[in-house]
Design a protein that fits this description.
Blueprint lengths: L1 H12 L4 H4 L1 H35 L5 H15 L3 H20 L8 H26 L3 H9 L4 H31 L11 H12 L2 H29 L9
Length: about 240
């Protein structure tokens, strides 16, 4: 009965929300939303791991390692994410396919979107974690050294947990931006929310309605992420630490 009300709304008022009363449109729209959700989730996890590793390698004793990490950070921070996703999908895929002798490409559009967006956000996360690590008092690290901790143990058990609490607000902003940036996957035909919405309004000629639906959809998705991240920030906060 609820779906039929939307059909009546379209027939009498001209508000054509086919995603509610048409099974085909509803199915592909919610499939697109689900693609956005799991694409965002995978990219968030990978970008955090890349950021942690990048922050660790920036403290390496080897100049070449630090130089390579800096080159990666500068490349992904200073080039447009749309250009990056095109580069991976069209250039890197063709290059690797030729080198490995594989026809048809080694990854699909979804796979390259995950790689491109994860590296893009990971470059910012590396700098965020680096700033958090530098905020950890040197006396805390010296105390861990006096207890016989190795450098890896200090980073894992002392520096990173404290740095994580300091940089979490900045990390939240970058992860929110990452979720919004998943819309560029549309450019390489990943069937996420924007892509399927474009298909629907092209078929049904209901551009205005779908624009409102997309706006509300992303508002809900990003709002849910903001709520989760703020709850997480409160749950791991150390009273007095990281405040001036």
């Amino acid at each position: 009965m609820v779906w039929e009300w939307f059909r009546w709304l379209a027939e009498t008022k001209g508000v054509n929300l086919t995603i509610f009363y048409d099974d085909w449109d509803r199915g592909r729209f919610f499939a697109g939303v689900w693609t956005t959700i799991h694409l965002s989730t995978i990219c968030i996890i990978l970008s955090i791991l890349i950021g942690i590793l990048g922050a660790w390698l920036q403290k390496s004793r080897f100049r070449i390692v630090r130089g390579l990490v800096q080159a990666y950070i500068q490349f992904f921070r200073n080039t447009p994410p749309l250009v990056q996703i095109y580069f991976f999908y069209f250039a890197m895929d063709a290059l690797l396919s030729d080198y490995m002798g594989i026809s048809g490409g080694i990854l699909g559009s979804y796979g390259w979107a995950v790689i491109s967006l994860s590296f893009f956000a990971g470059a910012f996360n590396a700098e965020i974690f680096r700033a958090g690590i530098e905020a950890v008092p040197e006396s805390t690290i010296e105390s861990a050294e006096s207890l016989g901790y190795t450098n890896a143990q200090i980073y894992r058990y002392v520096t990173l947990p404290l740095a994580f609490r300091v940089c979490l607000p900045a990390l939240n902003g970058n992860l929110i931006n990452l979720v919004k940036s998943t819309t560029i996957a549309y450019a390489i035909a990943v069937p996420e929310t924007l892509y399927v919405s474009n298909q629907i309004w092209s078929d049904e000629l209901n551009v205005t309605e779908m624009m409102y639906v997309m706006w509300l959809t992303y508002l809900l998705l990003v709002g849910a992420l903001v709520w989760v991240m703020h709850r997480w920030e409160k749950s791991i906060r150390v009273p007095g630490f990281g405040r001036r």
